Amino acid sequence: MLESTMMDVPLTIPTILDRMKLLFSGSKVISYLPVGIDPETKQPIPGRFEETYGQLSDRAHQLMHALTDAGVKSGTRVATFATNHYRHLELYYAIPSVGAVAHMVNIRLPDEQIVYIINHAGDEVLFVDNVFLPRLPAILAQCPTLKHVIVMGAVPQLPSGMTDFETFIAGKPTQFTYPEIDERQAAGMCYTSGTTGHPKGVVYSHRAYVLHSLVSASSEMMAVTERDTVLPIVPMFHVSAWGYPFTCPFVGANLVLTSVLTAPAFIARVLQDEGVTHTAGVPTIWFGLLEELDRAKAAGSPYKLQKLRSLLVGGSAAPRSLIEGYGERHGLRVAHAWGMTETTPLGTLNNLKPEHDALEPAARYDVMALTGRPAMLVQLKLVDEHDGLLPHDGRTPGRLLVRGPWVTGSYYDNPEATAASQQNGWFDTGDIATINTDGYMMIQDRAKDLIKSGGEWISSVDLENTLMGHPKLKEAAVIAIAHPKWDERPLGVLVVRDGFEVTKPELDTFLLERGFAKWQLPDAYEFVAEIPKTTVGKFLKRALRDQFKDYKLETSVTLE
Predict the structure, then answer these.
(1) I want to staple 231 with a disulfide (CB 3.0 to 4.6 A). Which of 17, 113, 224, 279 is the partner?
(2) Catalytic-residue membership of 371
(3) Per DSSP, which regions of 134-234 are E strands?
(4) pLDDT tens digit string along 469-485?
(5) 397 touches 434 (CB < 8 A)
(6) Of 90, 324, 342, 475, catalytic
(7) Strands (E), 258-404
């Protein structure tokens, strides 16, 4: 073998931090945090806090000194229990830069799962937002590995044994000499949402974060530069906020962080006032924002969002009606993406090919509704139940497998889950998908959510996305119900918009007009006030299946 003459320079988080300080010290992190409660509306009062990347770098170096003085060393797991704000961002850089591992704990998980993942990860230090202090006593009592608790934000009385964040870093030097870091060593940890069984841990390397950031910023993906201002509404406690905390400082883009403040009217004002050019969140966020934009436009006072060139939607499938609604009524582009905790998370992103520009609007929205093409360095394939390769013809569904330099090769300390998910160097996503000849992937369903009726598969996702385009419906979920003749049949669980009523014949006609066959239609619809959701805004199908497990469908339904 002839070796190359190239330098072997490690790809590590300090690389991003040093570049941020050297080239983009004037770029900003703008944080909106609750500073009180309005006595009339009972809603949080937002305060605006501004920090330059230069200041962020200095404070991150102070944090490094404070962490090492507290005994944090290479491999130490340091947990964060926090929302999106500048202190949390400082931790994103300080923890891995001392060789430790940043474990972002999902604040929306129930206490028993939080206790499990803190103990499973072996966390020794916990940084917590002041608003979550009431939850800590029950958690700390069951987490013996935690040695230090640092509170972010002012509190009237600091609990005994805890340290204030600003006191923790006060007086520390703003320069820190990094230890030697191997690019393949752990930099961060996240756990899956744990909808079935215990959450599973994924450990991200420095190398994975850096490569993910490089590709994310590229023109083929998010195309963010120093000219951009980015608002990731996706939380920093979930899959590293889809990588934005690393991608944006890497290229000098301004970051806007809004903590727990995600009300549609507030987000619309922030998008307008901060001149946001790119934003990202789950479909539930964008449904609420679309309603607010529609309301403001109808009232004659539309928001000024001319700078906003892209809304990235991920976490679950975005209905075509949502993408079309933004495009037709507000001239805004929604970009569909797909990823998982296990993929850091960027797997695919839907950017149109040049030839799509000539399509009629309806056909163009059909393409935009696809989940996207694989990111650079990411590979996808479809296999059948016997692991045989399936064609990329846009019609043949199969199990979706993925591999790449930021796709997990195992779960942390979980050999059973690892064995179930790894297929000869590929990760089995648990999704059923199609891929067309242009490489656009479309998630058809989670394997466990597909409905098998009379030997044929019905996609709950297709039904849901189409139903949510009905003007009288706010939300729609579809689950399988046991049927004595057809094995399983679909049941629609719907939330109707205020002031409207809708009937089954009306909904059936709506689906038939949009290409569904009669045998694919739900046998019945149930109307509820709210559909339960996971901690990241996806429909919680397991809860719906439990709720309707004894539901009886008519046995006389004819599907032929």
Answers:
(1) 279
(2) no
(3) 148-152, 163-164, 186-191, 201-205, 229-232
(4) 999 999 999 999 988 88
(5) yes
(6) 342
(7) 278-281, 310-313, 334-339, 346-349, 373-374, 379-383, 398-403
- The HSE-up count of residue 317 (CA atoms within 13 Å, CB side) is 27
Q: Is 342 a catalytic residue?
A: yes
Token pair for 493: 């669980």
Q: Which amino acid is it at 148?
A: H
Peptide bond into 235 cis (omega under 30): no
Position 517 confidence tier, pLDDT thresholds 50, 70, 90: confident
Q: How far is CA 41 from CA 38, 184, 427, in A?
A: 6, 49, 48
Is 242 labeled as catalytic in the residue annotation?
no
Is 247 considered catalytic here? no
Question: Which candidate in 457, 474, 519, 526 is catalytic?
Answer: 457
pLDDT at position 487: 82
For residue 372, give the DSSP letter. Answer: B
**Cα–Cα distances in angstroms (integers) from residue 4 to residues 1, 27, 211, 377, in the given order:** 10, 37, 21, 21
In the chain, where the domains are located: 13-367, 450-560
Beta strands per DSSP E along 299-361: 310-313, 334-339, 346-349
> Is 13-367 a domain of CATH 3.40.50.12780?
yes
The secondary structure of the chain in percent helix, strand, coil, rounded to multiples of 5, reads: 30, 25, 40
Q: How far apart are CA 510 and CA 80, in angstroms?
A: 46
H/E segment holding residue 463: helix 460-467
d(CA 15, CA 481): 53
307 by Cβ neighbours in 10 Å (0-12 / 13-18 / 19+) ranks as middle
435 - beta bridge partners?
441
Closest CA to 489 of 528, 445, 448, 520: 520
Catalytic residue among 83, 192, 344, 534: 192
What is the distance between the terminal CA atoms of the chain, rounded to a whole angstrom?
64
CATH 3.40.190.10 fits 450-560, yes or no: no
Cα–Cα distances in angstroms (integers) from residue 500 to residues 13, 131, 320, 322, 529, in the given order: 52, 38, 22, 19, 13
Q: What is the pLDDT of residues 298-341, one digit of tens each?
A: 999 999 999 999 999 998 888 899 999 999 999 999 999 999 99
Asked if pLDDT for residue 555 goes beyond 80, the answer is no
27, 253 in Cβ contact below 8 A?
yes
Percent over 70 (pLDDT), the chain: 98
Mean of per-residue pLDDT scores for the chain: 94
**Selected catalytic residue, list 297, 304, 452, 549:** 452
Model-level pTM?
0.89
Query: Which pLDDT does position 38 carry in this prediction?
Result: 87
Say which residues have a Cβ less than 8 Å from residue 446's Cβ, sequence separation at least 6.
430, 431, 432, 541
| Contacts made by residues 42-47, CB under 8 angstroms, sequence distance 24+ | 43/263, 44/260, 44/261, 46/258, 46/261, 46/266
Name the one residue in this structure whose structure tokens are 């499938």: 317
pLDDT band at 106 (very low <50, low <70, confident <90, very high): very high
Within 10 Å of residue 44's Cβ, how many Cβ atoms?
Answer: 19
